[in-house]
Each structure stands twice: as C-alpha cells, then as structure tokens.
Amino acid sequence: MAIAVCPGSFDPVTLGHVDVVTRAAALFDEVVVAVAVNPSKQGLFTVDERRELLATALEGVPNVRTDAFEGLVVDYCRAIGAATLVKGLRSSVDFGFEEPMAQMNRHQTGVDSTFLITDPRWSYVSSSLVKEVARGGGDVSAFLHPEVHRRLCERIG
Fold it and tell me: Mind telling me which InterPro entries this protein's record contains (predicted)?
C-alpha cells in the first residue's frame, strides 16, 4: 500500500491545502495529513484544533487521515511506512525552498518527494496571508471551508 504524507502547519487549513491533499488522495492509497508540532511556536489554533479543522475540510475524502508529528518529517514517514512526501508548490520560490529539502530527505532516509503545482485559484493563498487579512477585517471566506472560516473569525474576534 502506497502511503504519502502531506506535512505542514495548517494554521489554518486553506482551500489550497484541501486541493493539494485531495489531488494527492487520487494518486496514493492513503494520505496522512501531518500537522507539525513545534513547541517553540505558538499557533493561532492548537495542534488538536488544526487536526479537527483538517478533518472537517477534508470530509468525504475516504483515504485521508490526520495526525501530528514532532521532529523530522522523514523520521515520521519511516515510523508509519510512508515512502513519499507530498508538497504543493505555489511558485518557483516554493520550489527553490523545497528542492534542497527533498534532496536531503532522500539522501538521509530514501523518502522521496512529490510536488503538485497549486491550482492557479490558490497560488497566492497562504495561511499567514489569510490570518493577516482576517485580522485587518478583510473577507477571507473565499479561501476557507465555511467551518474553518467561522472558527477563524471567532478566534480572531
């Protein structure tokens, strides 16, 4: 069974994330959306809340589950038997950042990376930008699952 891991912070999960994970689910037997736990960073949502929001946004995609990991993502991949990481690329800037990591991951553990080019509708969307616009009072509902949007507005106040 081919297992892939889509790692990220997902704080919050956007429709761009949903698009990449849904497309990955068509390519692999199982996709694990793995929320990175970084004790030195304070997210807007807790890791458990992010997993819950991911599950809501990905409801109906049968071969996707959520999890959380701490440490190196390739160690997590080995622990669950995943041979592939899936990353969405919005631009060549993302590729420039991801390519050396993909090479290092493969060298260290043999875990390969699959890059999916982001749908143009979401190419400028990031969790950070969504939070910034929402904090400024802008409407970000077009970029989020309705429940994620509701929770974001509730959290930001």
Answer: Cyt_trans-like, PPAT, Rossmann-like_a/b/a_fold
